[in-house]
Design brief:
This protein is α/β, with parallel strands linked by helices and 434 residues long. Helices cover 31% and strands 26% of the residues. It has 2 domains: 9-278 and 341-387, no CATH class; 291-327, no CATH class.
């Protein structure tokens, strides 16, 4: 850029990351493969510069990105662009390639990652960093009913994946709107929390409902648009079939509703203003539970369902890993230390979570935050599974089971409190209290 500018500058880059038809679709089971592409997948990079500060936000329309792959991409982008901070987020469509890999859901598609995913994301980031323009920012919000709590309470006390009309969800849809001082549009960032599973266990490659929303927002605004998924761990798409999954027709149906909401939020961002770019890097310290005893893990493995599909395979692998750790005398971890990067732009702060966190966590963090707009980013900078709020752990269910079996030393039940307070501690670097 030459001499550092005190004006916020923004560059945008995008690349097509659509996989070849016939590959595994990631999100439900390891035996689901694509037969066609309903719409193209993409990676969009937004490069922000101001003075000596720089940050690149990347949104990739895939389900999850493994911790190792996210670290690799962030390091490559930082080295290739000179950016101080790099954040990469997945939109969480269940109708894209396997860029995470996990027992029960299938191995990571290394060939796709090496040939398409990683190099094209790097190209998008380099394009964004190569031609930044002075930018002003506007922020608009709207209350949207695109999402719905999906932890259905059954009469027998069990929890299943469905629709829970009285359960919490974060209904705020936020659109950050960037334009040059002359008024020429540069970029829109849409933020909302809901699973991109309207298509269900389909065979079409698709960005799901968020793709329809982005296409409409781009047409409406005349600028590229990227989607950041918020607190969606317990939030599914609000589908007319009464379930949390549908088919490709539900993608168009819900996507149309989301598109109208996003366009409304975009129009509500009427006042463009100069914005300050800041970032804070640090570490989050999350306590862990003591490891399960070897004999208990062995007993539970013997009682587990004889299946390697989805959560059944995940459960069996969890017990095997505990037994293996005990056999080799691996020391127990008392805490997990996660690297964290917060990026604030004007009145908005982006808070990455390498989890599918429950909506209450986002709602609470927003209420405590010193920023007017606190945008929690799910499945960002890696993936450590679900993160439920404490009040839901006693009820069990799919997400709670995955959370409990995420590591050989499981996360403490009050991880929601810990991660909220750890992020608030880092926010003090960006917006210290008077």
């Amino acid at each position: 850029m030459g001499k550092a500018s005190e004006t916020l500058c923004l560059g945008v880059g995008r690349r097509d990351i659509t996989p070849d038809v016939g590959g595994r679709l990631y999100g439900y089971r390891p035996d689901v493969f694509s037969t066609c592409a309903n719409d193209s997948l993409s990676a969009t990079a937004a490069a922000f510069f101001q003075g000596d500060e720089s940050a690149i936000l990347i949104s990739a329309t895939v389900c999850l990105i493994s911790n190792e792959l996210a670290d690799e991409i962030r390091n490559l982008v930082a080295a290739g662009t000179g950016a101080n901070h790099v954040v990469i987020s997945a939109t969480h469509t269940h109708s894209g390639p396997n860029t995470c890999g996990s027992v029960g859901w299938g191995d990571i598609d290394k060939e796709y990652c090496e040939r398409i995913f990683v190099p094209r994301i790097l190209d998008a980031a380099k394009e964004a960093a190569s031609s930044p323009k002075p930018a002003l920012m506007g922020i608009g919000t709207v209350q949207s009913r695109v999402g719905m709590n999906r932890r259905q309470h059954n009469a027998d006390g069990t929890i299943s994946l469905g629709q829970n009309p009285w359960g919490p969800f974060d209904g705020t849809m936020t659109v950050l709107r960037f334009a040059e001082p002359c008024g020429k549009p540069l970029l829109n960032i849409a933020h909302y929390g809901a699973h991109c599973t309207a298509a269900g266990m389909n065979s079409e490659i698709t960005r799901d409902w968020a793709g329809v929303m982005l296409d409409r927002l781009e047409t409406e605004s005349g600028a590229p648009a990227m989607y950041i998924n918020g607190a969606q761990g317990d939030v599914g798409p609000r589908l007319s079939n009464g379930h949390t999954v549908g088919d490709i027709s539900h993608v168009r149906e819900l996507g149309g509703i989301a598109a109208l909401d996003a366009a409304t939020a975009w129009r509500n961002a009427k006042n463009y203003r100069p914005a300050k770019l800041s970032a804070a890097a640090g570490e989050l310290f999350l306590p862990l539970k003591p490891r399960m005893a070897y004999e208990e893990a062995k007993k539970r493995l013997g009682e587990a369902a004889d299946s390697e599909i989805n959560i059944s395979g995940h459960r069996r692998q969890y017990y095997r890993e505990i037994m293996a750790a005990c056999e080799r005398g691996a020391p127990e971890q008392a805490q997990l230390i996660l690297p964290q990067t917060l990026v604030s732009i004007g009145d908005a702060v982006f808070v990455p979570f390498p989890f599918e966190m429950f909506s209450e966590i986002s709602l609470r963090l927003r209420s405590y935050s010193p920023f007017e707009h606190t945008l929690c980013m799910a499945v960002t900078n890696g993936s450590h599974g679900y993160l439920p709020s404490q009040d839901q752990i006693c009820r069990g269910g799919y997400e709670v089971d995955v959370f409990a079996m995420g590591r050989t030393e499981a996360f403490a039940d009050n991880t929601d409190d810990n991660i909220i307070n750890e992020n608030l501690r880092l926010m003090e670097k960006l917006a210290p209290r008077p």
